[in-house]
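User: My collaborator sent over this chain with a note saying "see what the structure looks like." That's all I know about it. Can you take a look?
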Amino acid sequence: MGSQVVIHLLSTGEDDFRQELAQLFPRDTTASPARPPYSEIGRRVIDESIQAALALGHNFVGTEHILLGILRVECPAATLLNRHGVTLDASTTTVTHRIAEIVAERRSSASS
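Assistant: Without extra context I'll predict from the sequence alone. Here is the result:
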């Protein structure tokens, strides 16, 4: 499903969101992508992403879980998302419903 779907469904202005995101987190083209160090916030987001996946009964961590992990941590990205209407409660509900729809569609196609 992916976090982009959730953000698109919940955001009040996707273009404004993307512009603010680029300003808040500019790309660093000079850094080596080999093994970037994780910040404390990054570690917490990863931990919360795993917890979000487990809470939903999932045996994988996808981008939708990372979105939920971000929203569970007090950080600039969560603040930006909240400002654009992408909240933890709404995102959790959207992720749960979308995954249920996807599972139902797959079961329907498999039985046809």
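A starting point for your reply to your collaborator: The chain has a mean pLDDT of 86.
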